[in-house]
Amino acid sequence: MLIKRNPNGIDLPFSSEITPRAVFESRRTFIRKMAVGSIASASMLEMASREAFAQAPGAAKLAGKPNAAYATAEKQTSFKDATTYNNYYEFGTDKADPARTAGTLKTRPWTVAIEGEVKKPMTLDIDSLLKLAPLEERVYRLRCVEGWSMVIPWVGYSLSELIKKVEPTGNAKYLEFITLADKAQMPGLRSPVLEWPYVEGLRIDEAMHPLALLGLGMYGEVLPHQNGAPVRIILPWKYGFKSAKSIVKIRFVSEQPKTAWNIAAPSEYGFYSNVNPDVDHPRWSQGTERRIGEDGLFAKKRKTLMFNGYNDVASLYKGMDLKKYF
Ligand code: MTE
User: Fold this and answer.
1) Domain boundaries, the chain
2) Is 132's pLDDT higher than 70?
3) Among 258, 234, 205, 198, which Cα is nearest to 70's?
4) Model confidence over 137-179: pLDDT tens digits?
5) Whether 240 contacts 95, CB under 8 Å
6) CA distances (Å), 27 to each of 21, 40, 48, 124, 261, in order?
7) Which of 31, 113, 151, 239 would be 145's cystine partner, CB 3.0–4.6 Å?
8) Are the C-beta atoms of 198 and 260 separated by less than 8 Å?
9) How far apart, in whole angstroms, are the C-alpha atoms of residue 86 and residue 144?
10) Distance in Å from the first CA to the final CA of the chain
């Protein structure tokens, strides 16, 4: 697996070199690296050996009305794959870590504070968020910057429903999503692999696009912890890292906010991060992807589509040089 040292001297594990074998081995490699290096080696080893299960047995059902506009004939990723192959660095950097360690996440009570350039700032608890708009089921492809993708039936509603409630002022040009960073619940915070909290951002017209989903569930259940419980965003035309998990605050701001991966490696992860097969990552091609679940030895990679196939969003970027604004 290709690992690059960023200017802070921290290994960035995002990689195109992911094969089933590499996936299998990356955990050991990472632990070894942590042990050889001086960074938090003891705590990471302790975290890696913990056997806590994130998905509580008998998770609460959460149905959404299927939205035909966002249905797909594509085969859905299995629940097992979608909940055991995760990026959620607050719970460890290996794909298998969050399913094991996110059991410590406390999802109730939970509030999301909405503040900044809005006429009606408010703090909503999770029950108010569940009732804010009719829940829909939407099947979205999610394409990770590492070169893999999944097809997942999400439950939620357009983020625009929430935005309309708080009435943004004329100065609100961007949204900043701030996620939970609690050392008591999140063992991964002991590692400085990213700056915490994990933050993401969108231009307000991107956030208002009907495709941008406020996610509360998947596969007819509340979100499993490892997938970003109890509330996250899902932006299927952007690389997966834009879809921030476990959101606690949304700030409406006038300037483009900083984002976690852009802070970690600005030359590799831009603000926009639209899926774009014509703009390679500096260290690997973005032209193809591996669909999780199609991992056989002879499984063919799929061609990655512009905006991950969600061409409706193209008008948001009219006139922009997407090589510059990657
Ligand atoms: N949100 C937080 N708070 N922390 C993270 O590490 N990882 C991102 C994104 N949201 C991440 C996050 C990345 S890199 C991806 S690919 C998606 O979550 C993965 O979502 P999934 O595990 O539900 O597939």
Assistant:
1) 16-317
2) yes
3) 234
4) 999 999 999 999 999 999 999 999 999 999 999 999 999 999 9
5) no
6) 11, 16, 9, 37, 21
7) 239
8) yes
9) 10
10) 24
Residue closest to 147 by CA, chosen among 239, 272, 26, 212: 239
- Rounded to the nearest angstrom, the distance between the alpha carbon of 119 and the centre of ligand 1 is 30
Q: Read off the pTM.
A: 0.86
293 contacts: CB under 8 Å, gap ≥ 6 = 75, 77, 78, 81, 150
Confidence of residue 297 (pLDDT cuts 50, 70, 90): confident
Phi and psi dihedrals of 125, rounded to 5?
-85, 175
Please tell me the residue having the least CA distance from ligand 1 atom 8. 241
Domain 16-317 fold is: Sulfite Oxidase; Chain A, domain 2 (3.90.420)
Question: Is the pLDDT score of 203 beyond 50?
Answer: yes
Asked if 287 and 122 touch (Cβ cutoff 8 Å), the reply is no
